[in-house]
Amino acid sequence: MSCNNCSTDTNTLPKGCNNNGSCGTGSCDKLTVFDWLSNMAMPSGQPMFDIVEVRFKNGRKHFYRNTKKIPLCISDVVAVEASPGHDIGTVTLTGELVKIQMRRREVSETSDEIKQIYRKASQKDIDVWQDARNREAEVQQRSRLIVSRLGLAMKLSDIEFQGDGSKATFYYTADDRVDFRQLIKELASTFKIRVEMKQVGLRQEAARLGGIGSCGRELCCSTWLTDFRSVNTSSARYQQLSLNPQKLAGQCGKLKCCLNYELDSYMDALKDFPKTEIALKTEKGLGVFQKMDIFKGLLWYAYKDEPVHWFKLTKDQVNNIISLNSKNKPVQSLELFASDVPVNEGDNNDFTDVVGQDSLSRFDKKRSKKRRKNRNNRNKSPRKDA
Question: What is the pTM of this model?
Answer without folding.
Answer: 0.69
